[in-house]
Amino acid sequence: MAEGSNQNADFEHAAFAQDNFKLFKIPETRMLKIGDTIVQVSLEFRSDEDEEKKDLYSSDLEMQRDVQLAIIALVNSKYSKGVARGRGFVIHQSKSTLLSR
User: Fold this and answer.
1) ∠ CA(44), CA(50), CA(52), 5° rounding?
2) What is the span of the domain harbouring residue 42?
3) Is the predicted pLDDT of residue 16 greater than 70, yes or no?
4) Which of 32, 38, 41, 63 is the most exposed place for a label (fewest CB within 10 A)?
């Protein structure tokens, strides 16, 4: 039963992320608050060569979608720290749970 509720929470996080955050710029670091979790997401170019193609990212909808899906996957992962690499980008994430009083 608990597994089903975790899957529902993961789905809700994914739906929140898809609907509520704007596309990331490269490079950018952003803090996201999702429920009782704070997630720091840093998006960077993979290499200097990729950075030279930075104008391509702003007009490449497929690459923007890849970045968004990678961020959603990292946010939904069970790991407190993670890295995802894609075509021209690398994402670092670190998350922590807020302490309740």
Assistant:
1) 110
2) 2-97
3) no
4) 38
Q: Which two tokens stand for residue 97?
A: 């749970």
On the 0-12 / 13-18 / 19+ scale of CB atoms within 10 A, 65 is exposed
Torsion of CA 74, 78, 82, 85, to 10 degrees: -40
Number of domains in the chain: 1
Identify whether the C-beta of residue 97 lies closer than 8 Å to the C-beta of residue 66.
Answer: no
pLDDT number for residue 12: 53
Distance in angstroms (rounded) separating the CA atoms of residues 3 and 49: 43
Secondary structure in 3-state letters for the chain: CHHHHHHHHHHHHHHHHHHHCCCCCCCEEEEEEECCEEEEEEEEECCHHHHHCHHHHHHCHHHHHHHHHHHHHHHHCCCCEEEEEECCEEEEEEEEECCCC
